[in-house]
Amino acid sequence: MARGRAAYEYTEAEDKSMRLGFLLIAAGLLSLLGLGCCWLLPALQERGGGGAANCTVLAVRQLAERFACTFSCGAACRGTARYPCLQVLVRTSRSAAPALLHEDERQLRTNPKCSYIPPCTRDDQENSENVTYKQKYWKEKVGSQPFTCYFNQHLRPDDVMLKRTHDETVLLHCFLWPLVTFLVGVLIVALTACARSLAARAEAIQRKKHL
Q: What is the spatial distance between Cα 160 and Cα 103, in angstroms, rounded to a whole number?
């Protein structure tokens, strides 16, 4: 009786392992599909028509127009402040036409007219000082020194980015972890199937010995 019970518990453990393996396989495939459709494919399209170039500052200026930003001062404390628009015009090694520099793709989507969005604070004067500090940085510290920038001729031909939001490391992790989940699931299923096959063979050999 105890022997039959031990065999039942072992089979139940195998079934749990198989279910876990198939669950990981499904999770890995769904993750790859979801990330590919919602995030990875747009990121690759964003990078598809772009590349790196050398940029040189042509002009740094503040516009009279001010933009709104939202600050947070606690869990239930939020408000709106304003900041001046800083524009950094550059010339790239790929084109003689001036282009507007942005921090990254996220800043470009948030405010395509400006080159810099300061950390939003309650005080408009502090926001203006942060923008002025950035303006001095581009005028005095960078000046005419060339630096690396990134562009996309297909999506935004008149804009360049100082850095990429979707770099190679992010794209690698986006693909790597769903793939690891899928492979772990396949490994669990394969090992469980092999263990079940070996157990069946051992049981058959044991029966032949008793005959």
A: 9
Other C-beta atoms closer than 10 Å to the C-beta of 144 total: 7
Query: If we measure between CA atoms, which residue out of 135, 136, 116, 139 comes closest to residue 67?
Result: 116
Measured in Å, how far apart are the chain's first and last C-alpha atoms? 21
CA 201 to CA 196: how far, in whole Å?
Answer: 9
* Global confidence as pTM: 0.59
Question: Nearest-CA neighbor of 128 among 80, 72, 62, 60?
Answer: 62
Contacts of 172 (CB under 8 A, 6+ apart): none
Cα–Cα nearest to 61, from 12, 115, 17 = 115
User: Can you tell me the distance from the alpha carbon of 98 to that of 121, in angstroms, rounded to the nearest whole number?
Assistant: 32
pLDDT in tens, 45-101: 555 556 788 899 999 999 989 999 998 877 777 889 999 999 999 998 877 789 999
Q: Where are the domains of the chain?
A: 19-47+170-210, 50-165
The CA distance from 190 to 185, in Å, is 9
